[in-house]
Write a structure and sequence with these properties.
- The complex is a heterodimer of chains A (275) and B (392).
- Chain A has 275 residues and is mainly α.
- By secondary structure, chain B is α/β, with parallel strands linked by helices.
- Chain B has 16 helices and 16 strands.
- Classes of the chains: A mainly alpha (275), B alpha/beta (392).
- At the A-B interface, helix 1, helix 8 and helix 9 of A face helix 2, strand 6, helix 4, helix 7 and helix 8 of B.
- Chain B: Pfam families: ABC_tran.
- Chain B: Its EC number is 7.6.2.9.
């Protein structure tokens, strides 16, 4: 233990809390081994930067025909990327706004019994093939951005909903009772104990949803909602492999970046004091 | 003894019936808990002791009957307000892992709207009280504490808003025996200062005997088997059930009733860290001591050196980092004292008082003498006592 905390006050008075002090030192040791993931966190965007850089170099120097030139024009690429991000962010925000409160409600006494039913519905939303979902919704509601958003939301609601429920359910019930026993209201227990402790699990669900959405948004092009998917479909339709492959690379890079952002968010929002 | 700051608790015909169960979990419990006392609830598992405890802060609502705290019927109060005025300490401390020690302790004061400064002062005061250095521990997270330290913080949290009544649910169940003994001693010395009304559930009868001013032994349905002072229960169990529960070693359990403070302590030579060594050595020689107890500036024992080790040194040295001096509180039982001596290389144990201040040394012989006295007292008491076993 001396190696860990050699300060003169390490030794409790009278050697009295010796067992305690040793235990605490061990606890500190484990806490210092935490957060090894920053290396991974830095590696991922670096990798994406290298891939995008290499692609940009190719794009600047490659000999392209007129169609390819037009499809891979920088301004258009920028607009498609922004569209793709809009689809992703708007869908995710809506999913959060629905799934987190719903997940909270489904863990409250009284409403609890409805949880399996709701989760089953959400499950169906995810199990259904997205392409079918997108097309069916478009036939029903018409083409466009908001129909795509609806399809994406249906598809991505499950992980957030399920993780919110699981995260809240896995909070040690004695902590909830401790909070109640100290005179915290149900609302205060939820806001100050249950939710903070469930944050890591909920955030994992949100990251999953983000990754699902960013990938699935590729299909939005089928109902005229834009996004980087249109590069892929155009590439296939016009048999222009440079366009097709550029689209695939850009979507993959964006997905990796979004995944990375999700990981960073997970690290940042994890309450201090939790392993 | 300081002034009583607790209030009394009166349970009248309290019943708790769970839907779908034939027998009530608590079947008409009536009980008076005097102000400023520690009352221990013991009994086999499922006897309703925890249910009874949780009805006092309405974590469980009684089906019928009334509970009064300090004369006020708690059924008519807002349950959150009620609980803010009752300390609650649970097994393992149940600290909130995402909050620092300070945030955990400051929770109830925060709910009561204390200002920041008053809360901060209170947190430091409480950490001192439970034997944790505020500067070192106040900003730590629970996982950076050992089990015993977490439990100490749990006790501090229960005391935070200075409630007159404290409920404890198996408070020391999750720590090792040595730490448990320390925590029990500390609770007793804290109680000596504060005189709260403490209701404590335990499954450990020895703990009940050690801590309790009174022990409530319950059978199924929270029926009172016996409710009396520990001495009386040990000396004359009310019935077969209590006798079985107390166990065969009732006479030996009396050891748990005797405190180190009842024994006359020997007072070997002491020296303060940094004092010149030679006068200490000559004092030890004059007293015939082969060892010297080393104290720090606040008269807390930090080391126990053989005179041979001190010989040739200029000054009394500060204790090495790996000192393994184990001390016992004067409130420790003879049982605890014997345990501690077995671990000590000196065959005796250093005794401390309030806030770890040095009091003296208890040796094996003194404990044995006290046990013998006890047996003799016991024999005469049994002879003279009313054969029905009613407490004198």
């Amino acid at each position: 233990m001396t190696a860990l905390d050699p300060g003169p006050d390490t030794q409790p008075a009278g050697g009295k809390n010796l067992a305690d002090a040793k235990g605490a030192a061990a606890a500190l040791a484990t806490s210092r081994r935490r957060r090894p993931s920053w290396g991974v966190l830095l590696g991922q965007p670096l990798f994406v930067a290298v891939v995008i850089g290499a692609w940009a170099v190719w794009r600047s120097n490659a000999e392209l025909d007129a169609i390819e030139q037009r499809q891979l024009e920088w301004g258009l690429l920028g607009r498609l990327t922004v569209q793709h991000l809009q689809l992703t962010v708007v869908a995710t925000v809506i999913v959060l706004a629905i799934a987190v409160p719903l997940g909270i409600a489904l863990t409250r006494p009284g409403v609890k019994r409805a949880a399996p039913v709701v989760v089953a519905v959400a499950n169906a939303g995810q199990a259904a093939p997205v392409i079918g979902l997108v097309v069916l919704l478009a036939i029903w509601l018409g083409f466009g951005f908001w129909t795509a958003i609806l399809a994406l939301c249906l598809y991505a609601i499950l992980p957030v909903l399920r993780n919110t429920i699981v995260g809240l359910q896995s909070v040690d019930p004695t902590l909830v009772e401790a909070g109640r026993g100290m005179g915290m209201s149900n609302r205060a227990v939820l806001g100050r104990i249950e939710l903070p402790l469930a944050v890591p699990v909920i955030m994992a669900g949100i990251r999953t949803a983000l990754v699902l959405v960013v990938g699935t948004a590729t299909l939005a092009t089928f109902i005229d909602a834009g996004g980087l998917g249109s590069l892929i479909t155009t590439g296939i339709r016009l048999l222009r492999y440079p366009v097709l492959i550029s689209g695939a690379i850009l979507v993959a890079a964006l997905a990796l970046l979004i995944d990375w952002a999700g990981r960073v968010l997970e690290e940042v929002t994890r309450p201090r004091g939790l392993e | 003894m300081s002034e009583i700051s607790g209030v009394d608790i009166e349970l009248t015909d309290v019943v708790k019936r769970y839907p779908g169960q034939k027998k009530p979990a608590v079947e008409g419990l009536s009980l008076h808990i005097p102000a400023g006392e520690i009352v221990m609830f013991v009994g086999p598992s499922g006897c309703g002791k925890t249910t009874s405890l949780k009805m006092i802060n309405r974590l469980i609502e009684p089906t019928s009957g009334s509970i009064r705290i300090g004369g006020e019927d708690i059924g008519r109060q807002n349950d959150d307000d009620l609980r803010r005025r009752i300390g609650y300490v649970i097994q393992g401390g149940s600290l909130f892992p995402h909050m620092t020690v300070t945030q955990n302790i400051a929770l109830v004061p925060g709910l009561l709207g204390w200002d920041r400064r008053r809360t901060a002062e209170r947190v430091d005061e409480l950490l001192e009280l439970v034997g944790l250095d505020p500067a070192r521990y106040r900003d730590r997270y629970p996982r950076e504490l050992s089990g015993g330290q977490q439990q100490r913080v749990g006790v501090a949290r229960g005391l935070a808003a200075d409630p007159p009544v404290i409920l404890m649910d198996e408070p020391f169940g999750a720590v090792d025996p040595i730490t448990r003994q320390r925590l029990q001693d500390e609770l007793l010395s804290i109680q000596e200062e504060l005189r709260k009304t403490i209701v404590c559930v335990t499954h450990d009868f020895d703990e009940a005997v050690k801590l309790g001013d009174r022990i409530l032994i319950l059978t199924e349905g929270a029926q009172i088997a016996q409710y009396d002072k520990p001495e009386a229960i040990l000396a004359s169990p009310a019935n077969r059930f209590v006798a079985d529960f107390v166990g065969a070693g009732a006479a030996l359990k009396q050891l748990t009733l005797s405190r180190v403070s009842e024994i006359e302590l020997s007072r070997p030579t002491v020296a303060e860290v940094g004092a010149a060594a030679s006068p200490v050595l000559s004092a030890a020689k004059a007293a015939g001591d082969t060892s010297v107890v080393i104290l720090d500036g606040k008269r807390r024992p930090v080391d126990w050196m053989w005179t041979t080790d001190l010989d040739g040194l200029d000054k009394v040295p500060a204790p090495p980092d790996d000192t393994d001096l184990v001390t016992i509180d004067r409130r420790a039982t003879l049982n605890d004292a014997l345990d501690t001596m077995l671990m000590s290389s000196h065959g005796s144990a250093v005794v401390t008082g309030r806030r770890d201040e040095y009091l003296g040394v208890v040796d094996f012989q003194a404990v044995v003498t006290r046990i013998q006295e006890h047996h003799e007292e016991q024999a005469t008491r049994v002879d003279t006592e009313d054969p029905t076993g009613a407490p004198a």
